[in-house]
Amino acid sequence: MIVVTSIASVAPVRSPLRPQLPGLLSLALASCLAVTTEMLPVGLLPAIGASFGVANSSTGLLVSLYAVLVAALAVPMTHATARFARKPLLLTTLCCYALSNLLVSVAPTFAVVAAGRGLGGLTHALFFSLCIGYVPRLVTGAQVGRALAIATGGASAGLIVGVPLATSVGTALGWRASFGALAALSVLTLVLVAKVLPGVSNAAPTPVYQKRSGRTQLVAVVSSNALTYLGQFTLYTFVSVLFLAAGARPEFVGPLLLLCGICGLAGLGYAAGMVDRRPRRTTFALLTTAIAAVLAVGVGFPLLVPVIVAAAVWNGAFGGVASVFQAAAVRTHAVNPELAGAWVNASANTGIAGGAAIGAGFLPLIGLGGLPWVCAAVLGLGLATSMLARRAFPSHL
User: pTM here?
Assistant: First the structure.
């Protein structure tokens, strides 16, 4: 286990983006690992449940447990660990991911599986706060948005590549092999991050202004982020069911989700190129595109081709959303970067859990064809909140 010391004595290494690319890419790999760990049970729930004689509904709690723990504990854990050195603490989270996946892979009972997942959720609550907070300590302020898109873009890669590959391993060799392989990859990631990621100081990279305006801006960012994720997951939670209801064959659902993920990388690329120059325009473009595309899903359903095209555009736009809100939260300077990341992390996971619940509640009442309209309405609230917060989402930096 890595020993975490108190306040770091390492001097800040903030510099232009290019010299910090190895460190940022190592954070991207760690982000990929984190999201793969979080979402892997989705594709393996029936196999895990069958091993222990547990119903799929109960096995599904292994996923929701993550979101609840992150939403509840991201901010308190970030507060509690503020005095510890950044890099050793980040490496400790990677150690915990390895232990979490190892526990699941060798679990003799379902209770041990749940304990392993609980450890993963606790780790996840802290990891992304650290990851988001690390970036402003590495690069100059004018490049924070682009650097965040690189470092946390690994989360998209986790959904697009990590989860499908790990699920395929689990399908071919058994679900335990999949988690065992992920535990081994966690150790390799830890070694790589330890080697290439520079150490940084605990001191905030820019002054922290505890002014009402800064706190008001952060509240606006967090509120818009929560509403955006709430709207997104009202529909996205059931996107596989949507494709099937529109006439897709079951074997094509995976490739269709892959298509949506690849389009999400395009949205991430757009955000990376624009968010440091025109934050307001970038936010408006991504959210209005997502809303229009979601409405197109509602209009096109149940015709398969219109649904596929609209879903690709919708998820393409959403791919850049995380970077926009992360950068906006950090730039409020209301709190230190880690705590800003914690609030973004917690609000996103609150939206994920709440969106799934809203979708599940509306589905029996209005059917799949009605969910896109609910999704668009909530996304519209997120857009309105961001556009009203002119200082949090300025036209120029």
Answer: 0.82
Neighbours of 255 (CB within 10 A): 11
- Segment 259-272 shows an average pLDDT of 88
CA dihedral in degrees (147, 396, 202, 3; nearest 10)? Answer: -30
Convert the pLDDT of each residue in 203-220 to its tens digit: 655 555 555 668 899 999
Torsion over CA of 332, 333, 336 and 340, rounded to 10 degrees? 0
Instruction: Give the integer Cα–Cα distance in Å for 395 and 384.
Output: 15
Worst-scoring range by mean pLDDT, 34-43, 53-62, 93-102, 141-150?
Answer: 53-62
Contact 370, 358 (CB under 8 A): no
User: Of the candidates 149, 48, 40, which has an alpha carbon nearest to the alpha carbon of residue 101?
Assistant: 40
* Residue ranges of domains in the chain, CATH in brackets: 18-196 (1.20.1250.20), 212-388 (1.20.1250.20)
Q: Are 397 and 277 in contact (CB under 8 A)?
A: yes
